[in-house]
Amino acid sequence: MAGRFARADLRWRMRDYVRGLLGRATRKNGWQLAEWAGHRTSDGFQRLLNSSVWDADALRDDVRDYVAERLGPGGVLTLDDTGFVKKGTTSAGVGRQYTGTSGKIDNCQIGVFAAYATDSGRALVDRELYLPKSWTSDRNRCRAAKIPDEQGFATKGELARDIVRRRLAAGLPAAWVTADEAYRQDWNFRRLLEQLGLCYVVAVPKSQQIKSLAGIWRIDELIDEAPADAWQRSQPSAGS
Fold it and tell me: Do residues 200 and 190 touch, judged by C-beta distance below 8 A?
């Protein structure tokens, strides 16, 4: 990834920053990462992240290509969102919203992430920041956080669909897609996977209804009533 940085000092800072993220610093904030890297202050890392010119999406694509080469074809693309608890109000997309990180409604940012996994390993390959409507409807607030004017509101499901399209167009050799019940509820997400010819496994809530000519049942009721011989053990991949 060194070629993405025009100046040597930026390359060195990014190298130290990544090493810090992979290191044993108890918290991954600027000051602790700088201390881990042996810097006297966090100013260099702050400039790297806030004002230096480099293309984060191009760097993401470098990581994707590296992962595809090292982990090989036929893997699983896993989509999920996670939250980053914050105390302030200026970080892009921050607001009071539910996050599994704390298990409650909290002041946080939400990101939708994609990981690629094969028998050889697993790694993150893409991400999208979720912007609540409270942000996209306030262009001045967006501009202050350096969010482009053309970036409008998108649901987490729409962000996940964008990630799937982008990864496949770039040649990431995924054979399966998996996600939790939040994405199952988006029928456009499931339809896209079917249109792309991708196999998928998505979670459903226990209240999911199963309909047939004989009636309607909750899925947890069907599971409880199923006899032992109704089940068959299956291995989605070697060793699991």
Answer: yes
**Closest listed residue to residue 155, CA positions, set 177, 202, 188, 180:** 188
What phi and psi, each to the nearest 5 degrees, are found at residue 199? -70, 150
The continuous run of DSSP H or E covering 221 comes out as helix 219-225
CA distances from 92 to 11, 18, 98, 224 (A): 25, 22, 16, 45
User: pTM of this prediction?
Assistant: 0.84
Asked if residue 162 lies in contact with residue 131, where contact means CB atoms within 8 angstroms, the answer is no
Residue 138 has pLDDT above 60, yes or no: yes
Specify whether the CB–CB gap between 44 and 34 falls below 8 A.
Answer: yes
Packing angle of the helix pair 43-50, 30-37 (nearest 10 deg): 120
Provide CB contacts within 8 A for 104, sequence distance 6+.
Answer: 98
Instruction: Read off the pLDDT of residues 35-73 as tens digits, 9 standing for 90 and up.
Output: 998 999 999 999 998 889 899 999 999 999 999 999 999
Separate counts of helices (H) and strands (E) for the chain: 10, 8
150 to 35, 82, 154: CA distances (angstroms): 38, 24, 12
Cα 70 from Cα 117, distance rounded (Å): 11
Express as a percent the part of the chain with pLDDT over 70.
Answer: 98
